[in-house]
Amino acid sequence: MTLRSAECPKTAGSAPEVWHNALVNGAGTGYGGGGAMPGGQRPTIKTVAARAGVGRTTVSRVINGSTLVSDEARAAVLAAIAELNYVPNSVARGLVTSRTNSIALVIPESESRLGAEPYFAAVIRGVSIGLADTRTQLQLILVRDQGERDRLTASVAERRVDGVLLASVHEHDPLPALLEDMGLPTVLAGRRTPEESLSHAHADNVGGARAAVRHLLERGRTTIATVSGPMDMDVGRGRLQGWQDALRAAGARPEERLVARADFTEEGGRAAARTLLDRVPGLDALFVASDVMAVGALSELRARGRRVPEDVAVVGFDDSFLARHTHPPLTTVRQPVEELGTTIARVLLREIADPRAPRQRIALPTELVVRESS
Amino acid sequence: MTLRSAECPKTAGSAPEVWHNALVNGAGTGYGGGGAMPGGQRPTIKTVAARAGVGRTTVSRVINGSTLVSDEARAAVLAAIAELNYVPNSVARGLVTSRTNSIALVIPESESRLGAEPYFAAVIRGVSIGLADTRTQLQLILVRDQGERDRLTASVAERRVDGVLLASVHEHDPLPALLEDMGLPTVLAGRRTPEESLSHAHADNVGGARAAVRHLLERGRTTIATVSGPMDMDVGRGRLQGWQDALRAAGARPEERLVARADFTEEGGRAAARTLLDRVPGLDALFVASDVMAVGALSELRARGRRVPEDVAVVGFDDSFLARHTHPPLTTVRQPVEELGTTIARVLLREIADPRAPRQRIALPTELVVRESS
DNA sequence: GCAGCGACTGGGAACGTGCCCACCAATGTT
DNA sequence: AACATTGGTGGGCACGTTCCCAGTCGCTGC
Questions:
Q1: How close is the nearest chain B Cα to the Cα of A219, in Å?
Q2: In this structure, what are the phi and psi dihedrals at residue B137, rounded to the nearest 5 degrees?
Q3: What are the b/e assignments for B323-334, b being 16+ CB within 10 Å?
Q4: In angstroms, how far is D27 C1' from A71 CA?
Q5: Confidence at residue B4, expressed as pLDDT on a 0 to 100 scale
Q6: N or C: which end of chain A has fewer CB within 10 A?
Q7: Segments of B25-125 assigned E as strands
Q8: Which helix (H) or strand (E) holds B50?
Q9: Mean pLDDT, to the nearest integer, of B63-77?
């Protein structure tokens, strides 16, 4: 068989084309299973072999695209598959190959509220796209509390998935290490620390934040405060870092009084803005480490009668679809979340295919989107 | 440090011989529960039996909670399980029980991407909650195009799931009938027609729309137009029906010129509002069949200089989190989407447990949430 | 003419579990 | 005393697949 070696392994882990054709065509007509078989039983590889007048092994070879099959045998098998409407049983296959062809995407529900947080929806979409031309299925695991976390690890231990994607990691999250110990391929969206040992992809948070603050400086703002994310997450630390970097590069001092830490929620953003305005009444710009928090900050500014951007310029982070609907529309740093999802899916597939492959660390570029709030 | 993700993550020369590697490494190396097993093999029910000094069947009985086990045997088995860190292999179990303990949730991505997003996120959350105290796993299938649809049906035919949830159905969607033919338990969120034969749960769209329009009438509005959803969906027809009902009940005529049909997208809502304002410049109220479309309508109203609610009162539908962030905050009809998800999950589990159980049709109540746009 | 080889084939043995059935040891019943 | 009954146990088989290996066949080369 021919393997594409130089190309991007976008179909890593999938079987050759023959397989797809046999499957889709075979299943495309009736799916019944009921009509084709007398006893109402689903046809098995044995049934197909009998019908085609060959052995089980030959059928298996045809299905899996082996070249060691004569043309006539292959034709007979394909005909039998089509007639019987045969679809291989993936569970039985999984038992012998010890592969399930499915991966888990773990999302901490406590933070996400999935609805209010467009980030996770985009990750899901991206992962799904990354899996699109593979036979790999996506298992979604929303972790709400410790009980669910136990169930998750149990489920993973049961070998129901070939690998795991973690959508949001905190510095001291025990899960990544646990999965690593279990020897299960694991890829993170984000990282625990900049020295992350597991494969991961993350947005260039430092660079994005730097660009945002530089933009505010270019607009002539002099007192730029920031609402940062949680410090036990690399995202939070990175975006704060970028703010500090940009100020220092401009010869300004990133004073501690200009920083308010929050938790990526709207209410948190509102409270942080309140704190900052009390502490530094003269601030004329706000870099907020997420759009959701920026929404909270904007409402606080409005409540205090500060005009945006005349009195206070505001820049968010994420370019979630919220940003287009705020008043005024929010200047923000776009991070390619969907692409992030696609990337970690691809990396995971590769790692499943070859567990000894070197770990990958991928940074995705961010981009400033200027709207009317700055 | 910064890698472009668009590039191919190439690791020198290692040709991905997928299936070969899977075989050599897959079953063996790290996957065991820590260092319990010397050979690196995961313990099986046989290992546990040997360790506990009992037969395989007894171990199986303990695991599956049979009462026909002596206390001492049970104690010995549990001890062995704990020592060996044994976890039953769900794939092998699935082979013999022909149950996978997982269900699929199918979401048409073509629609979800366009902004009905909060709806699907809430459904996912609800389904996940409905599955919480079960051992059932959730498989998420985002269907983007026809190719993916084929893969979906193939996947279902492979018996990788015990049942299917469909998150959004159009009247002539072939999928529900297909699944029914395959004899796979299927539950819908929404319904194809009011005579839906499959089990389903849906919000009381007619009642909700009626309440919305009644509310506008009570506010003294006289010319109430509507932006409706697509007519090939029961949701769309139902909400339009409610608008008509309420007007008739008040002695008004639901004239065709007061109706503009759209597709549940923001842009669609904007265009529909434009059409209506051109056609009926004197309208003083708008019932929009979804919040997302209402956002579009609001922006069109603002663009035309109509004040909300002074000139035109607006009511949406869904009470998605968007509604709290519009200007002014949107009066809308709340539908319990998360509960909807939980409900269909429960119904499906029941149907899987007893396939001959009668089909269920469940309507969930809606509730008017009055904010400042009306 | 025969060993050697390469292309092709199919039977057997796993993979790890649940379930049927035969069995055994006590206790009860006639 | 012989016989059912009950609680408890384990061996064999089946689930549907893949892979190892032992074949068979036809062809080449000396």
A1: 27
A2: -95, 155
A3: bbbbeeebbbbb
A4: 19
A5: 36
A6: N
A7: 102-108
A8: helix B45-52
A9: 92
